[in-house]
Specification:
- With 284 residues, the chain is mainly alpha-helical.
- The protein has two domains: 174 residues, no CATH class; 102 residues, Arc Repressor Mutant, subunit A, CATH 1.10.10.
- It is 76% helix and 2% strand.
- The chain has a two-stranded antiparallel sheet.
- Helix 1 runs antiparallel to helix 4 and helix 9 crosses helix 11.
- The protein is globular.
- About 4% of the residues have low confidence.
Length: 284
């Protein structure tokens, strides 16, 4: 299911890029398509892998089941990490340019889904062992921390690589904007629609469902409205959650939304972090 979610999200990324932002650099233009194609090619393999595991589980062949899980985990983790790095590289590269916030928001939704998929794959052996042994399945904080540290290390390495890349020495030549009549008015109107629904008491999930948009997009609207002092963050989260996120932002040395989400071990979404970032900018 998550694999399909990732593919659908990347299709949304490609749609966003084609109608909003175009990059001169070929590797930047093709990055989302490369990731999507890789995952699309794995759908059949993933279904076959799942069927094999279910068969071995029914047969009670534990040794063969665990061996298959270990091999599958190694294969899929290599695949996930390769594409995660490609996506993070694309996010960091895009962030070098102005007026790419909407596009970045969609990319970060894909990143969150890939992180979730990675946690699922890495937890598979533990979950199966627990089920077979009749033990309670508990969250593994050590695994969450390990993934977080690995992501932070990857992000720092990618940021250093991008910074050293000569193609970013003249940022203004790297991005082309398509002219769209009335685009600014239309964009402002979409925020107003969400604001009106928030003031009626609707939640982010309610607004997303009613408007046929993703939760991440509506969270982005909320962050923008908070930044414009149109609505208070209390409409969207408790003070305790806002303080937890604010502390993580203050402690983050990378100064990126992705690193804060990683530091918080995925407990909060990119959109929620951006909401708190908006409040902190207002308070400066």
């Amino acid at each position: 299911m998550i694999l399909k979610t990732i593919i659908d999200q990347i299709l949304n990324v490609e749609k966003s890029k084609s109608t909003d932002t175009e990059f001169e650099d070929e590797s930047m233009r093709s990055a989302p398509e490369k990731i999507r194609t890789t995952f699309e090619n794995e759908v059949g393999n993933t279904n076959g892998f799942r069927s094999q595991l279910m068969r071995l589980l029914r047969e009670g062949n534990r040794d063969q089941l665990m061996e298959r899980i270990e091999k599958g985990t190694a294969y899929y983790m290599a695949l996930i990490q390769k594409n995660s790095r490609l996506l993070i590289t694309h996010i960091v590269e895009v962030s070098q340019f102005s007026k790419t916030k909407t596009y970045l928001n969609v990319l970060e939704e894909v990143d969150a889904s890939i992180v979730k998929k990675q946690k699922q794959i890495r937890s598979l052996k533990y979950i199966i062992d627990s089920v077979l042994d009749g033990k309670e399945i508990k969250p593994d904080p050590a695994l969450a921390k390990k993934i977080s540290v690995e992501r932070e290390t990857m992000i720092k390495a990618v940021e250093a690589e991008v910074k050293a890349n000569p193609k970013f020495s003249k940022l203004k030549t790297g991005r082309k904007r398509k002219s769209k009549s009335g685009a600014k008015a239309e964009k402002g109107e979409t925020y107003k629609k969400s604001l009106a629904m928030f003031k009626e008491g609707q939640t982010i999930d309610d607004v997303a469902e009613t408007r046929g948009l993703s939760v991440g997009t509506i969270e982005g609207h909320a962050a923008r409205l908070i930044a414009d002092a149109e609505i208070d963050i209390d409409h969207f989260m408790s003070k305790d959650d806002a303080q937890t996120i604010a502390k993580a932002i203050a402690m983050d040395s990378n100064d990126t939304t992705a690193s804060v989400v990683g530091y918080l071990k995925g407990k909060f979404t990119y959109g929620q972090v951006r909401m708190v970032q908006a409040v902190m900018r207002l308070e400066k």
